[in-house]
Amino acid sequence: MPIETTCPGCDRKLQVGEEHAGKQARCPLCNEIYTVPSLVEAESAANADADPRVQWRMRTPEGQTYGPASKSDLEAWVAEGRVSSDCMLSSDADTNWVNADAVFPALTQAPRPSPMVAPRATERYIAGHRGALILSLGIISWAVGCPIFGICAWVMGSADLREMRAGRMDSNGTGLTQAGQIIGMLHAMLMIVVIVVFVFVLLLGVGWR
Fold this sequence. Notes:
The protein is of the alpha+beta class. The chain has helices spanning 39-49, 71-79, 100-103, 131-144, 147-165, 174-208, and strands spanning 3-6, 13-16, 24-26, 33-35, 56-59, 65-69, 88-91, 98-99. The strands form three sheets. A four-stranded antiparallel sheet has the order 6-5-7-8. A two-stranded antiparallel ribbon has the order 1-2. A two-stranded antiparallel ribbon has the order 3-4.
């Protein structure tokens, strides 16, 4: 019958053959050398660990502390996925904090959920709209006669409308965005036509000379 013992170096649960009782053994995980207790001593320690009067506390990686709780409560938390291997545990019998997987070795291979937090549906970030800004740029382009503002409203409006259709931006600003895009686009196109006509007339005038 194997002897269940705990490594004093890393607090891992280990199983050693009964024939090694009273001898020195080396922990395969941390190489700590320790004396293997007898089967009676190991059983006594296990019974003390399972004493329902012993109260436990758990500390999450974020620093939150839960407890006091009995060993059976801890086992229930583990079964519910509330305890991860990087949580720390402490009991009345041993005030030192140890990793949870030292007390529950099965946690070593288990996934690490957020302790004491119920699973939540996947959240998607939705950016705020820039409708008011785009509309302002479109109006300013007409007010100051500068096509740069109109082009900015045109380009930004087109990009933001694509994001809204894809669900990545607040669609409440669709109206403002469309209005700013159209106003900026009209001014930019008008200015382009004016510039082209001006250049054409200028070149035509030079040709007549």
